[in-house]
Description:
Layout: H1 3-30, H2 56-81, H3 90-113, H4 125-141, H5 148-171
Helix pairs in contact: 1-2, 1-3, 1-4, 1-5, 2-3, 3-4, 4-5
Amino acid sequence: MDLAKLVAEALIVIWPAYVANATPVVASKLIKRRTPIDMGRLFPDGRRIFGDGKTIEGFAFGVAAGTALGGLTIYIISSFIGNALRYPTYLDCLSLSFWALVGDLIGAFLKRRMGLPRGAPAPLLDQLDFLVAALLVTRLLDPAIVSLQVFVAAVLLTPPIHLATNAAAYVLGLKKEPW
Length: 179
């Protein structure tokens, strides 16, 4: 597979996860009442399980947006390009969206265990937690759509894309930190 086609397929496959991961940041600005997923509970180490930044509303909106916008974008792209690339199904979009947010929760859990406060940077964990979870589980469900090459390409592409989009969200006032 040539490099351009691999990059295009990787970006198409990971698009629903990107949308799902970004949506809670936007949703938090639109929804005034937010319910932490951990309901304020503490882990046995005395720290919050996830923290106030991980909410039921953000999770729900993220899964819905990743599935719907991811699926719609893929439909539009496939209408123009045709069968030149492999595309995730709507079920794949749901899986990528749901597991991206579960991966983000795992990252938040790990950051709390490391004693990092909300918003503190955790290089690579911040950029890859959502992606690795989404790709691993979706690969189990649909190995044809998440090939090893697509997986590796997505992991290499995501850190700079994630940092750039977070910097943009910071400039737009959507995030308090630029990472």
